[in-house]
Specification:
Oligomer: single chain
Largest sheet: 5 strands, parallel
Strand order of the largest sheet: 5-2-1-9-19
Structural class: alpha/beta
Helix content: 25-40%
Shape: globular
Number of strands: 22
Number of helices: 12
């Protein structure tokens, strides 16, 4: 069981091991089984490794179309020119070396009666338990005018890779004195603080390279996580370079016109030089195909086992699940992957799974050497995860020395969680 999060250990330097969130210990299982994991991000990779390490006899298959995973955490630094995309890339060789069968294909269909997953090349994989970690897809129907073609002119950069580099190139090509607009959707959304981190780091780039420019945030929310910390940092670091239009001020984006690069809100239209449009989101498409997503577009789960409430023998982890108070983040996905593996091991052995207790911290960087954090404890309560003992965030009036330590701690966390998931 993990120790409670305190202001001292959460803000003044949590060890890197703790920052990836802790999960219940996994006992060695005695019965073999076939486990298929769909999705090779932080959740899927962590779950596959934890399963195989708990029981070497398990047949663990990871189905992921991309041979290289590109991390969203720290990708905002790539956009701002502070980091190269290669630092975000991780392969699956070490998972394969541990005995996990890595299939570089997309999962296209799931037969829940036969308990089988079919890949794009037609290969079928039977399972006793299926773990879905598909991340997010975009709910483009909720944003008229936005589709794949629009994303080439108005990039979302919310799935790291080509879109990340496209947004970076657009910023580099923009003339000094231009406006960068960031359209932020309502929650639930992947990593809720990340759009505001992006605005901060883009402002850092503009302040350095194009100081007459500005960042315009069009927000579908009135309030957001760690708002006081962000606003203090913006005032301290960037003056009036960042402007935010909240929901009650008409900031919610209702449609876009990619031909003219126009963003339409309830109270007016904007035509920025660079438009970063982050659409509303829902669970990855394969979750809907499996029947695990409900009318919200997300996947309800049993928070003890992560088993779908809609489909037997399917577990859903990471951004795709309805997790309640626990955020949709890399650290949460990694922890859920391990906790889900523990539950599956117990179920295969005929034991009652242990209720997980997840503890961790999310980091935000608003400028080089300037970071802050948010920590929390989460455990099952009813049908969801609830935050217990209260979240702990960095103090608003902290000295710059603390901001520098937290920026350094963020980098250590990233190194730890990626090594933990991908070796």
């Amino acid at each position: 069981m993990n120790a409670p999060v305190t202001r001292r250990n959460a803000v003044l330097g949590i060890t890197a091991a703790a920052t990836s969130l802790a999960a219940p210990s996994i006992l060695r299982a005695q019965s073999a089984g076939r486990i298929v994991v769909v999705g090779g991000g932080f959740g899927g990779a962590a779950s596959a490794r934890a399963l195989k390490r708990a029981d070497a006899k398990l047949q663990v298959t990871l189905i992921e179309p991309n041979k290289t995973f590109i991390s969203c955490p720290f990708s905002n630094e790539v956009i701002a020119g502070l980091r190269e995309i290669e630092a975000q890339q991780f392969g699956y060789d070490k998972l394969a070396a541990e005995g996990i069968s890595v299939v570089a294909q997309a999962a296209t269909t799931i037969d829940t009666q036969k308990r089988s997953v079919t890949a794009a090349d037609g290969a079928a994989f039977g399972y006793d338990r299926l773990v879905l970690s598909p991340g997010i897809d975009f709910h483009v129907e909720a944003l008229p005018g936005y589709d794949d073609a629009a994303s080439e002119k108005m990039p979302h950069a919310w799935k790291a890779g080509a879109q990340t580099l496209l947004l970076r190139r657009q910023l580099e090509a923009m003339a000094d004195g231009g406006t960068v607009a960031i359209a932020i959707p309502a929650n639930p959304s992947r990593c809720p603080p990340a759009p505001y981190e992006r605005a901060s780091l883009i402002a850092h780039y503009l302040k350095t390279a194009k100081p007459r420019s500005k960042v315009l945030i069009l927000d579908a929310k009135d309030a957001f996580s760690q708002q006081r910390l962000f606003e203090r940092a913006w005032k301290e670091l960037y003056g009036d370079m960042i402007e935010r239009v909240a929901l009650s001020q008409g900031g919610r984006v209702t449609s876009v016109d990619p031909a003219s690069k126009t963003i339409v809100t309830e109270f007016g239209n904007y035509t920025p030089d660079v438009a970063n449009v982050i659409p509303p989101q829902r669970a990855g498409r394969i979750a809907e195909i499996a029947g695990a997503a409900d009318a919200t577009g997300w996947c309800p789960i049993d928070p003890v086992t992560f088993e779908s409430k809609l489909v037997k023998d399917i577990h859903v982890i990471g951004d795709a699940c309805l997790g309640g108070g626990i955020p949709k983040s890399a650290s949460a996905a990694s922890a859920q992957g391990k906790a889900c593996a523990a539950a599956i091991i117990a179920l295969l052995a005929g034991r009652t799974p242990e209720a997980p207790r997840l503890t961790g911290v999310c980091y935000t960087t608003v400028a080089p050497g300037y970071g802050f954090s948010l920590a929390g404890n989460y455990q099952p309560k009813g049908d969801i995860f609830a935050e217990v003992e209260g979240g702990v965030t960095s103090p608003v009036d902290a000295p710059r020395e603390l901001r520098a330590r937290e920026a350094a701690e963020a980098e250590r966390w990233f190194q730890t969680v990626t090594a933990d998931c991908f070796g």
